Amino acid sequence: MPSDSPPPNHDALIEIDHVTFGYDASRTILSDISLRFERGKVTSILGSSGCGKTTLLRLIGGVHAANAGTVRFDGTVVDAHDRELLFRLRRRMGVLFQFGALFTDLSVFENVAFPLREQTDLPEAMIRDIVLMKLNAVGLRGAANLRISEVSGGMARRIALARAIALDPELIMYDEPFAGLDLISMGVAANLIRTLNDVTGSTSLVISHDVPECMAISDYVVLLATGGRIVAQGTPKELMDSTDPEVRQFVRGEPDGPVKFHYPAPPLAQDFGIGTGAGQ
Description:
- By secondary structure, the protein is of the alpha/beta class.
- The chain has ten helices and ten strands.
- Helix 4 (124-137) packs across helix 5.
């Protein structure tokens, strides 16, 4: 299972070609990574906080430009400086933001209708039908008239998902879709991601550090480590069966391994002056 090359794939919707990115010169977030995300599949990108998972989504969406390398969507280079191009590409993408990012002053219905009103000229009758169908797909048609303050955290995540799929996107990107959810809501969210992907034929990228949920619904898994390097990639079974110490530590949640608990620091004796005569 090589960790330095993309999976064999001749029909990729997204191609990440030797991409390096950092917000400033002092810290590299992603380091010369190459990946391909296959059409119609659910791919999970796992890794600890700060390893560059969300940054990767922002590069695909053109929020930031890579310092080096190329990001392609359906063969088109994503140019973060070309606003007209980004508008066209983003019409084909749906994003489920972490914690939903719903408009709290709008109803459930109006939240889902928002992208339809902003990006299409559809008549209100058709917008109504689409919104109700999307809410029905996530099991919340009956909640259409509720305020966001009246729904639970799990329901809010499903409303955000209905909004993300309102325009029938080819690519759906999920940023930490399981964060803050109870076990039942996690299971509901995971099943929805898998079902919607299969029913709509879309391509799904799931950014998470929740191993069991992602392993259960994914066709392919990529494991990133701090510094934006690819540790491993393959099917869920391949990663779960891996004997690589770093992979094994992450997927099994082992406290001891290559990833240390302590951030690099000088010896305690040096910091506290033990044995150096300090304070005497």
